Each structure stands twice: as structure tokens, then as C-alpha cells.
Amino acid sequence: MGNQANQGLLAAAFHEHIDASLNLVRVAVELEWTILTRFIVGVAFATFLSVVYLLWTLRHSKQPLVVWEKLNRPMVKLFRGWIFATLLRNVNPYSGSIGHLHATALATFAETVGGLAALSTLKNDDRAILVNLNVEYLKKARGLLTASSEFKVPESFSGKDRVEHEVVIKDRMLDTVAVAKLVWMLELKEKSQ
């Protein structure tokens, strides 16, 4: 009987020990979770304040490299690209237009398409330099735009001379938005076929 009583007491003590250990683990996890949660919230709040401070202090800056360097803080690196774009959206000369594309953006688009058309028809040794770009704006440019251009070297061309071609920019309704006339100074090493 004494042996069974000792085993009962031993089982009860073991059961109480397990309960106490589990309770201790639960309290430790709650305490650690509270500390971890407060740390995470603190870091998030500090990052938010840092972002707000940077947005406020750099809002009128027109120097992209200065802004980029100021955003080189460890807590802010995650949001660096978004903050940079937000701060500099008013610096972009093409964003000043309300509801339509800026005229310079259309000229750049025409030059790019015209350059691709011209340079894709030339041989590796040939040279083409844009010497004149004239854009006639016919309509406000909104939405998706497409540009087309055909460039052909004249049959009688040899040596070095000026060649003119057009780039036509149209909107999604196929209305002509702008017509660009590009003049290239071509220097052909051999006569193009």
C-alpha cells in the first residue's frame, strides 16, 4: 500500500511539474510575443515616420541624385523606389501635361521610331546622323499611340547626302496625332541595294 501511495504522490508531483512547466512556457511565449510585437510595431512606426519626414523635407527637391542619396537609409531601402518616384513625379517634364502627352514626348517617340526605321535599313559600315527634326502636331495625344515610318535609301544615292522621311503617329482610333519629318545625313560606304 505504501508503494502505491508513493506512486500516486509521484504521479501527482509529476503532473504538477508538467503543469507548472507548461504554464512557465506559456508565460514566456506571451512575454516574448509581447516584446516581439512591440519591436515590430516600433520598427514599422519608425519607418513610417522616417518616410513621412523624407517626403516632407524632399518634396520640393529638383535634384534626383540628392533625393536618391537621402533615401539610402537602411529602414527606408524597402520603400526607396516608391518614395523616389513619388517625390520626383513633378520633376518629370512629361508629367506637366494634364490628360495628354507632352509635345516633347511625342517628338522623342517620333525620333526613336524614325531612327529604328533608318538604322535598320543601313549596313554596319554606313552612318546616319539626324540633322533636322520637324514635328507638326495635329491633335492632342491621349492613350495608346502607334508610330509608323518607312525609310528607303533613294536609288540614285551615293556617297554622302541628306535624306528626308516621315514618321506618322496615330492614336487608338487611328486619327493622326502628329507627323514628324526627319532629315538624316547619310554616309554610305557602298551603294545600298
Automatic annotation (TrEMBL):
The keyword Thylakoid does not apply. Keywords: Membrane, Transmembrane, Transmembrane helix. SUPFAM superfamilies: Thioesterase/thiol ester dehydrase-isomerase. Signal peptide: none annotated. The chain crosses the membrane at residues 35-56. Pfam families: DUF4442. This is Thioesterase domain-containing protein. It comes from Mortierella isabellina (Filamentous fungus). The lineage of its organism: Eukaryota, Fungi, Fungi incertae sedis, Mucoromycota, Mucoromycotina.
